Amino acid sequence: MKIVVLVKQVPDTYEDRKIDLSSGLLDRDASDIVPDEINERALESALRYKDGQKATEIVVLTMGPDSATKTLRKMLSMGADSAIHIVDDALAASDMVQTARVLAAAIQRGGFDLVLAGNESTDGRGGVVPAMVAEILGLPLLPSLDALELEAGSVSGTCSIDGGSLSVRAPLPAVVSVTERSAEARFPNFKGIMMAKRKPVETMDRASLDLGTAAVAASVVGSATKRPARAAGTKIIDDGTAAQELAGFLASNRLI
Ligand SMILES: Cc1cc2nc3c(=O)[nH]c(=O)nc-3n(C[C@H](O)[C@H](O)[C@H](O)COP(=O)(O)OP(=O)(O)OC[C@H]3O[C@@H](n4cnc5c(N)ncnc54)[C@H](O)[C@@H]3O)c2cc1C
Fold it and tell me: Which of 37, 69, 99, 140 is most buried (CB neighbours < 10 A)?
């Protein structure tokens, strides 16, 4: 079984995240850049299968700037076998369609049985890349699984819906995205960190992928505007009139 896990490097959600107002892109110097936690959970699901089926091969794949190597090394230290890094200035500011095309081309090139991804990144939050990859590869998609079970020829799992949950299944090969309710990721141990240094990381650029001849018109950021600073809130001190003041405040803001 060969599992490809799609991983994205994102600004740490515990820090102040900023965009570069001149380009609309992430300001990488404003916060720590880390693997998206949802992708660590996706990798964990793959690793749990490999714990029982040692012949399983796990490849982590990212498209991102040079610094994304750090994320790949972390995933290798958790237990992935190898990594692919698509890095090319020509791909900077790729929209979701371009990203999906590039990822799908790289996945197709190496062969696979299962593609695992997060259901939504914590920065871009498009939530559509896994579905687009499945569409391009012509594969079934099991989206937003809270838990998944992998067998030799199929994958199944559960996803939450309003008022209940669904139990779903697809034959392999397939694409699966997982939610933050899925497997809690393991910490890399010392042995894993040392071994990660020797594991292969293949670097690819746009030219090394078969992206076909169809030109894709990428969407571009027209302008970016900083969110206005928060104004000081209204303080209500209870001198016997607090209830009326509160009701007045809610009514004036059309909250009641
Ligand atoms: C040089 C360079 C600079 C970039 N700069 C930015 C930037 O500033 N801001 C930004 O948001 N994106 C950047 N990207 C990445 C790319 O543009 C986004 O990944 C893409 O638009 C996906 O959007 P999303 O996060 O909303 O996807 P979603 O659909 O929300 O992602 C869902 C899942 O898809 C997978 N996935 C998504 N993107 C990638 C990826 N790049 N590689 C591997 N798996 C992925 C992950 O499993 C993720 O959990 C850059 C790429 C390159 C090459």
Answer: 99
Q: Whose CA is nearest to atom 20 of ligand 1?
A: 96
| Ligand 1, pocket-test mutation among 5, 8, 91, most atoms within 8 A of CB | 8
- pLDDT classification of 217: cutoffs 50, 70, 90: low
Give the list of residues 6+ apart from residue 93 with CB closer than 8 angstroms, or none. Answer: 23, 24, 25, 218, 220, 221
Residue 24 CA, ligand 1 centroid: distance in Å: 14
Mean pLDDT of the 203-232 span: 82
**Which residues contact residue 197 at a Cβ distance below 8 angstroms, ignoring those fewer than 6 apart?**
73
Look up the CATH number of domain 2-208: 3.40.50.620
Query: pLDDT, tens digit, for every residue of 158-175?
Result: 999 999 999 999 999 999
For ligand 1, what atom is nearest to the CA of residue 65?
A: 1
Q: Tell me if 146 sits within 8 A of 181, measured CB to CB.
A: yes
